[in-house]
Amino acid sequence: MKVIGVIPSRFASVRFPGKPLAPIAGKPLLQWVIEGSQKSKLLQKVLVATDDNRIAELAKKCGAEYVMTAPELPSGTDRTWAALQDQDFDVAINIQGDEPLIQSHILDVLAQSMQDNPECEMGTLARHFESDEDLQSINTAKIILNHKSEAIYFSRLPIPYSRVLRNPQEKRIVHVQHIGIYAYRKKFLERLCQTPVQPMEIHEGLEQLRALYLGGKIKVTLVDYITQGVDTPDDVKKVEKILSKRSP
């Protein structure tokens, strides 16, 4: 199975313009993502999909391929397909470009899941909730699973509503917390990107709901993995604090 990792990366972020090039502990944010991804044992290639020459130059410097994509593409998924549509591959893994703490073994877990579950068109990762605050926060996506660990629904709210449970810790058992890394089989990725944006993904602000709208089977693999993404300049300090505690 040929697996390619794609890091969608654009310069124009509303909350943090120039985010991919922002320095974190002496290196640009995107460089951390590239180097972490390149250590994967199951990715045959890692490339950057971008609309900015400065980001392309950084990818080249880091030894990663890059593909220039249109700036008006609406999502990282669309940027992933635009970068790969002319390439030969079986599975594409969409690696978030604002996750400088990405660890290669997590990507390998996701790739292996796609190998082990050929009936699933798509895969992603999740972990158990550790706090009631995260469960209630609209900034964390929740997943409800079926008995095959396939996604039934994603939401920013802690659905389903319960008329029975009163203890928040009991509620956590019903959900898992989404980790936003995706794997797609080639044909399904193409179909997904050729499908118009759907109302429920607009309302929730979660693009993976388009896959469920199409009837796609999304395998969810549980991992013990906590990360810190960079959405705003304040998040840089949080990441640097974590990096300072890591072994050299």
Structure write-up:
- The chain is α/β, with parallel strands linked by helices and 248 residues long.
- 33% of the residues lie in helices and 22% in strands.
- The chain is built from 10 helices and 11 strands.
- It has helices at 29-38, 53-61, 76-84, 104-116, 132-136, 168-172, 186-194, 199-204, 209-213, 234-244; strands at 3-9, 23-24, 27-28, 45-50, 65-68, 91-94, 122-127, 142-145, 151-155, 176-185, 218-222.
- The strands form 2 sheets. Strands 1, 4, 5, 6, 7, 8, 9, 10 and 11 form a 9-stranded mixed β-sheet that branches. Strands 2-3 form a two-stranded antiparallel sheet.
- A hairpin with a 5-residue loop joins strand 8 and strand 9.
Secondary-structure element series: EEEHEHEHEHEHEEHEHHHEH
| Low-pLDDT segments | none
Specify the structural class. alpha/beta
Q: What's the shape?
A: globular
Q: Tell me the number of strands.
A: 11
User: What is the residue-mean pLDDT, rounded to a whole number?
Assistant: 91
